[in-house]
Design goal:
Elements: H1 4-19, H2 24-41, H3 49-58, H4 64-75, H5 81-90, H6 95-120, H7 128-140, H8 145-151
Helix pairs in contact: 1-2, 2-3, 4-6, 5-6, 6-8
Length: 156
């Protein structure tokens, strides 16, 4: 029979996973304060958070691959390769999974940069100040300079 704190921790984990995909590192960070809070209030033996995460992974409810895929598909229409890669690293996705997603992102980066630029500006910059503004905007969205230059028709 499970302890009350473990059941509530498992239920909390399932509630998080029902809303969206989480990487193992993200879910661990979200659950860790609750493990410590439960350990403070109860004298029972502490819950093994890693065992819970292993169980969720074994059952197929927690997957770094799905979390990475979901993030890439959600962000690819608005952000560039650099920004998406950074967000994947922040969420604790392994470098192997990130490198597996890179070719797909590289193939469509120029097209995505054009779409983002068209929605935001739509007209070519008239002076240097406006060019700089558009370049900064696209850089802040995580697009590479070569893609930005192609979108704005700059010469290297």
């Amino acid at each position: 029979m499970r302890k009350k704190s473990e059941v509530s921790l498992r239920a909390r984990a399932l509630q998080y996973l029902a809303r969206r995909e989480y990487s193992r590192a993200e879910l661990r960070a979200k659950l860790l304060p609750h493990v410590q809070a439960n350990a403070d209030f109860e004298q029972a033996q502490p819950i093994d958070l890693d065992a819970l995460l292993d169980d969720l992974t074994t059952r197929g409810w927690l997957s770094d691959v799905r979390a990475a895929t979901q993030l890439v598909h959600a962000k690819r229409g608005r952000f560039g390769l650099q920004r998406i890669t950074h967000e994947l690293r922040q969420r604790g996705i392994s470098e192997e999974l990130i490198s597996a997603a890179l070719p797909e992102l590289k193939d469509c980066e120029l097209e995505t940069a054009r779409d983002v630029w068209q929605r935001k500006f739509g007209i070519a910059p008239r002076d240097e100040k406006e060019k700089a503004k558009q370049v900064r905007f696209l850089q802040s969205r995580g697009f590479a300079l070569d893609a930005i230059f192609k979108v704005l028709r700059f010469d290297d």
